[in-house]
Amino acid sequence: MSTSVLKPVLTRAVEAETTSDPSSTMTLLADCGTGGSPITSYRSAFAKGAVGAPAHFHTRASELFFVIGGTLLVLVDDEVKTLDEGDFLLVPPHTPHAFAAGPGCTADVLFTFTPGMPRFDYLRLLGRVMRGEASPQEIKDSSELYDNHYVDSPHWRAALEAAAEQVRLRQEDPDVTDSPLLS
Questions:
Q1: Which of 27, 104, 146, 163 sits a CA distance of 20 to 30 A from 50?
Q2: CB 166 within 8 A of CB 103
Q3: What does the H/E/C string look like for 24-64?
């Protein structure tokens, strides 16, 4: 029987790698297998109204969300939830999910995958695709490697459309109330 000893993993903010695209900056904190880390964790700061990820699921890992600041819209199965500062969500394997900054809001989110698997190259690839430096086909081709399996979600599309409409209406009338779809 093999036993491995876990070691502390410390990533200093000033030393952490960042990767950016036009709508977010990701701070890469701990990647499974690097420096003895058993998890993968990164922090994403999303610009106002930024779409984070389309509907997808993981077969081997749970994904944890902790909202450090702002508001995050999250699809979980067929439900759209709004997470605010201090909210925590765990999405188990095989559960379709997606996320975006809330309507007219920024979001600062800590993501953690457990069990971890190396994902930082995937995050770097996402940035390159968003900046037009790589093809979206590369993401499709890497779905097994990075355990990211994209799915169609009419619920998520409807939520994003409702969020865009909500922002438009707020611009016209700041007293407009939120859509019940986004609660």
A1: 146
A2: yes
A3: EEEEEEECCCCCCCCCEEEEEEECCCCEEEEEEECCCCEEE
- Phi and psi at 130, nearest 5°, equal -65, -30
Nearest to 43 by CA among 60, 64, 22, 61: 64
Q: Look at the pTM and tell me if it is higher than 0.85.
A: yes
Q: Which residues pair with 42 in a beta bridge?
A: 28, 111
Distance (Å, whole) CA 29 – CA 14: 11
Q: What pLDDT, in 10s, does the model give residues 150-180?
A: 999 999 999 999 999 988 888 887 766 554 4
Burial class (CB in 10 A: 0-12, 13-18, 19+), 161: exposed
**Which residues, listed in sequence order, are joined to residue 75 by a DSSP beta bridge?**
80, 98
Contact 112, 28 (CB under 8 A): no
The C-alpha torsion from 121 through 126 and 129 to 135, rounded to 10°, is: 60
8 A C-beta contact, residue 129 and residue 138: yes
Are 35 and 52 within 8 A, CB to CB?
no
